[in-house]
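Ops channel
N.P.: pipeline sanity check, posting one input/output pair.
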């Protein structure tokens, strides 16, 4: 599922949406890793364990909330994102929180630039649905991890994406994998293209296994039932299919 590379469209969308996203959805969650909308957190799930003194890489860090939380717990954090706006916010968030995180504007397709580092932990929160080539990314993640290193990532639950939250009807075929490019006209009349990749759960699992990483756990959490989070989430759908799925892998 590599095909045309839409990274430029994705970067432009996130640069434009960054301030809205930070205000509406991302919010102030810098005390623990929160794995996603209505998902759960590290305090409850204990997927990565103790981080004191560990070298940690976050990929698709957005406003840096997860890395900042881990830095507060003693992690030595590097975090990358494709969007300059998201990285700018992350840098400001780290300063506000009095921690140091090495933030860099690097896309998934170039994480091999970090090849000389070896990480104990690599995490990603709700970002890999924007990655065009998971096979390549997971192989690179494996190379960046120390032996027995942990890789935890969350993404949009593929079932959640199939259903129209307004009428609860199945709108997409689960089998229609690949890039989705949606035209959006924002209230100021500007036109934007939202791009993401639909994948079956088996496709994600098979990419993990093909990379040589070991899959230890899949978590499909539903916490904060009935809470309203941003305008894009409808309780009726959220309470039946949680929007977040989490994969824990080991090198
Ligand atoms: C839904 S946000 C999640 C951000 C953050 N992890 C959080 O929990 O708020 C997805 C993030 O992935 C980033 N992203 C999308 N495509 C990327 C790519 N090709 N390389 C690196 N980051 C990317 C976006 O810029 C955005 O910050």
């Amino acid at each position: 599922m590599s095909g045309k590379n839409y990274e430029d469209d994705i970067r432009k969308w996130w640069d434009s949406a960054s301030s809205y996203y930070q205000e509406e959805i991302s919010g102030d969650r810098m005390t623990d890793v929160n794995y996603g909308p209505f998902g759960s957190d590290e305090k409850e799930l204990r997927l990565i364990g103790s981080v004191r003194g560990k070298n940690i890489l976050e990929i698709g860090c957005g406003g840096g909330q997860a890395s900042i939380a881990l830095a507060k717990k003693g992690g030595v954090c590097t975090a990358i994102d494709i969007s300059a706006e998201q990285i700018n916010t992350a840098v400001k968030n780290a300063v506000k929180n009095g921690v140091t995180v090495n933030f860099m504007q690097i896309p998934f397709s170039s994480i091999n630039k970090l090849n000389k580092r070896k990480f104990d932990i690599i995490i990603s929160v709700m970002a890999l649905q924007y990655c065009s080539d998971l096979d390549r990314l997971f192989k690179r993640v494996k190379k960046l991890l120390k032996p027995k290193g942990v890789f935890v990532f969350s993404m949009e639950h593929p079932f959640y994406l199939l259903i129209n939250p307004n009428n609860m009807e199945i709108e997409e075929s689960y089998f229609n994998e690949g890039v989705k490019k949606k035209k959006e006209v924002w209230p100021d009349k500007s036109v934007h293209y939202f791009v993401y990749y639909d994948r079956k759960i088996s496709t994600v699992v098979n990419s993990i296994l093909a990379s040589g990483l070991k899959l230890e756990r899949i978590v499909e959490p539903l916490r904060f039932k009935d809470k309203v989070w941003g305008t894009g989430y409808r309780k009726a759908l959220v309470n039946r299919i949680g929007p977040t799925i989490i994969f824990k892998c080991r090198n």
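N.P.: looks fine end to end. The longest strand covers residues 145-156.
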